[in-house]
């Protein structure tokens, strides 16, 4: 007998006949955040097709469309809930923008090509019609053509990589006049992924405190924290996949079109962040859709949502994947022709290590035992981790290996508990098994899955097993396993918070602004002047001129700003 929902039109929450809590306000915040981000991506694509450059009006257009959609939802479901969800989302967005605007990105990849791409988009580059950013830059700004020749690898990453994070960042930076604000997507997707995963955990009928803890730990992985102050996209991929997993769990259990829409939103974001994001996301989508369809057929609303999500994902990603396939014969060009491991410094990853098979490399990189004082070395590793977003050995933290080992040790106990009560097993365990299997498969299909930032979704495995243990009745064991992941997150968060505060107060560009000299003299950029392009943009914003010197011995002292060395 189906229970009839007793809904008050203008209520923030819904209750059924048994007073079961259904967080409508939470759902509205999640849905509004996804709509806002989707509108920003879609608006940018439409403007590119119309040959209109990104500007502050791109953000205004996306905001207008979002408001229109929220008004329609208000007429359908009640204005109080929709307005509250919209205002909360806008406030959170502004908070993310303001927080990130305080901290510059001086990481290697951030200065070498991520910010180069964002600056180019802000300056008028249209990736739909201008396929090569260096040629466009040299032609558009001939007086600054020398900077075009300093772009890392002749702009090959900017030309051919998915541009989702750059477009979202450039649209916001254009609206608020801050290059640093382009990183707003980092805390935005981190928070959104935590909310979506929490919603999925509540659908699994987990206690609120345990569900909130699991969601926070899953969203705040060391990879995400290490990249939270940068334009790296690996943490964003992890957040997008967490959104997809959490929404897929809700969809499997509730079969609502909004849950499916959120799963497709996670797919949209992951596909447009990174090539591997497309592989991971489609793998998870295929497995979760298969087990869901095996349970029941799609409703008309689900079919429409699925087709709309697929069409939108293809449309937004076509300028990257379709163009690469048609022009260079492979959608993942240039990765199909470049061995990215060849560019790794021998000191950080010796050739003897890279020559090992994938499993040996994974074991050595994940279960790396510290030397010297056991506790001291573990803590020092987390300090290093949050300051190096591309760290290789133990990228999830030195305690993650113990969490995985504990997972393996508890796996037989979990299987035995499931089989012992198989007659009473519910759909929650099937759903978790599908999600865990999809994540593991998405990890091992990558040859270099030993590198944590390449497989950010691996962080979810101990958390999902802890959830399964709680569901089968082994609550204390599940809490212990979750606690092992919490320890790593807590250590990484403490050091991240310390470094974030220091970065905000010790902004290197403020140091240059306070200098009375009207010129900033660059000695060199690391690795063939990578980063000079981004540095030149910031120097110009300070109203100073950029100069170069071939005689560093004449400098009184040298100061390193990110990956650029300045002569003082």
Top keywords for this entry?
25 helices; disordered N terminus; single chain; two-stranded antiparallel ribbon; 6 strands; globular; mainly alpha; 568 residues; four-stranded mixed β-sheet
How are the SSEs placed, and which strands pair?
Blueprint: E1 14-15, E2 21-22, H1 24-49, H2 56-77, H3 79-101, H4 108-122, H5 133-140, H6 145-148, H7 156-160, H8 164-176, H9 185-203, H10 208-219, H11 222-226, H12 234-254, H13 257-271, H14 275-293, H15 300-328, H16 351-354, H17 358-366, H18 374-387, H19 400-420, H20 427-444, H21 460-471, H22 475-505, H23 508-513, E3 519-525, H24 526-529, H25 532-541, E4 545-548, E5 558-561, E6 564-567
Parallel strand pairs: 3-4
Antiparallel strand pairs: 1-2, 3-6, 5-6
Quickly count the helices.
25
Shape: globular
Using only CA atoms, what is the Rg?
Answer: 24 Å
Task: Note the main sheet.
Answer: 4 strands, mixed
Strand residue content: under 5%
The termini sit apart by: 78 Å
Helicity, as a percent range: 55-70%
Residue stretches low in confidence (pLDDT < 50, at least 5 long) are 1-22
Query: Quick one: how many beta strands?
Result: 6
């Amino acid at each position: 007998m189906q229970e009839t929902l007793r809904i008050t039109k203008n209520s923030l929450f819904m209750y059924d006949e048994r007073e079961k809590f259904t967080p409508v306000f939470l759902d509205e915040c999640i849905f509004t955040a996804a709509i806002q981000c989707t509108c920003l991506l879609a608006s940018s694509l439409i403007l590119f097709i119309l040959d209109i450059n990104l500007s502050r009006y791109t953000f205004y257009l996306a905001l207008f469309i979002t408001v229109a959609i929220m008004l329609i939802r208000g007429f359908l479901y009640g204005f109080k809930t929709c307005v509250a969800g919209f205002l909360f989302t806008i406030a959170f967005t502004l908070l993310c923008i303001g927080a990130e605007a305080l901290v510059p990105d001086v990481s290697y990849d951030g200065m070498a090509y991520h910010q180069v791409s964002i600056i180019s988009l802000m300056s008028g580059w249209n990736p739909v019609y201008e396929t090569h950013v260096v040629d466009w830059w040299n032609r558009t700004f001939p007086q600054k053509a020398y900077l075009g020749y300093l772009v890392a690898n002749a702009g090959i990453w900017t030309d051919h990589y998915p541009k989702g994070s750059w477009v979202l960042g450039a649209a916001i930076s254009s609206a608020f006049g801050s290059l640093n604000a382009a990183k707003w997507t980092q805390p935005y997707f981190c928070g959104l992924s935590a909310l979506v995963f929490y919603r999925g955990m509540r659908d699994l009928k987990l206690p609120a405190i345990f569900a909130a803890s699991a969601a926070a730990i899953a969203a705040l992985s060391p990879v995400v924290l290490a990249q939270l102050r940068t334009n790296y996209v690996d943490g964003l991929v992890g957040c997008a996949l967490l959104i997809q997993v959490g929404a897929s769990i809700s969809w499997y259990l509730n079969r609502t079109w909004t849950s499916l829409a959120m799963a497709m939103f996670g797919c949209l974001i992951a596909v447009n962040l990174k090539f591997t994001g497309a592989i991971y996301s489609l793998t998870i989508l295929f497995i979760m859709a298969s087990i869901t369809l095996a349970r029941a057929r799609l409703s008309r609303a689900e079919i429409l949502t699925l087709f709309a999500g697929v069409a939108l994902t293809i449309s937004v990603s076509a300028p990257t994947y379709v163009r690469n396939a048609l022009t260079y014969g492979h959608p993942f060009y240039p990765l199909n022709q470049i061995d990215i491991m060849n560019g790794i410094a021998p000191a950080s990853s010796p050739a003897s290590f890279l020559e090992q098979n994938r499993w040996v490399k994974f074991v050595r990189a994940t279960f790396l035992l510290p030397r010297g004082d056991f506790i001291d070395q573990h803590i020092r590793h987390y300090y290093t981790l949050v300051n190096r977003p591309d760290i290789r050995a133990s990228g999830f933290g030195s305690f993650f290996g113990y969490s995985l080992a504990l997972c393996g040790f508890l796996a037989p106990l979990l299987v035995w508990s499931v089989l012992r009560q198989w007659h009473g097993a519910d759909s929650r365990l099937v759903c978790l098994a599908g999600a865990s299997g999809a994540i593991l498969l998405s990890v091992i299909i990558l040859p270099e899955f030993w590198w944590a930032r390449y497989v950010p979704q691996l962080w979810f495995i101990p958390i999902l097993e802890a959830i399964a243990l709680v569901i089968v009745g082994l609550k204390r064991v599940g809490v212990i396993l979750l606690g092992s992941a919490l320890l790593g997150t807590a250590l990484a968060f403490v050091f991240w918070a310390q470094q974030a505060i220091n970065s905000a107060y010790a902004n290197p560009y403020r140091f240059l602004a306070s200098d009375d000299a009207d010129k900033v003299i660059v000695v060199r950029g690391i690795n063939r002047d990578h980063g000079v392009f981004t540095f030149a943009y910031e120097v110009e914003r300070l109203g100073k001129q950029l100069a170069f010197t071939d005689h560093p011995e004449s400098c009184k002292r040298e100061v390193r700003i990110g990956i650029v060395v300045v002569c003082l």
